[in-house]
Amino acid sequence: MLLIGCDSAPDTSTFHSGSHVTLQCSANNVVVARRKEELDRITEFAVGNDEKGIALEVIADRAFIVPNGTKSTVTSVSYTVSQVRIEEGDMENQSGWIPNEWIKLQ
What we know:
The protein has helices at about 40-45, 50-60; strands at about 20-25, 30-35, 65, 70-75, 80-85, 95-100, 105. A hairpin with a 3-residue loop joins strand 4 (about 70-75) and strand 5 (about 80-85). Strands 6-5-4-1-7 form a 5-stranded antiparallel beta sheet, with no helix packed on it. A two-stranded antiparallel sheet has the order 2-3. The chain has one domain. It is α+β, with helices and mostly antiparallel strands.
């Protein structure tokens, strides 16, 4: 079981490109989209706890999964989403996109 469902609770913290952050949502894992264009669909699967949908995205290499609390660096910020580089674990040095609500300052 992947346990990937995430709530979208807003975060009032401010971060910017170069910020050291952790990735957090209400589940045990955080789903990271490899491309910004794919993020909406992947986020819908995660918020809806659609494990099969997420698994298919991971198999197709359009997303990857990291543990909740994974240390990362923000590399690009837009109004609602950011690109992050993973700094630890099996996906170290991989980059991808997540909603800003899932980013917490360290």
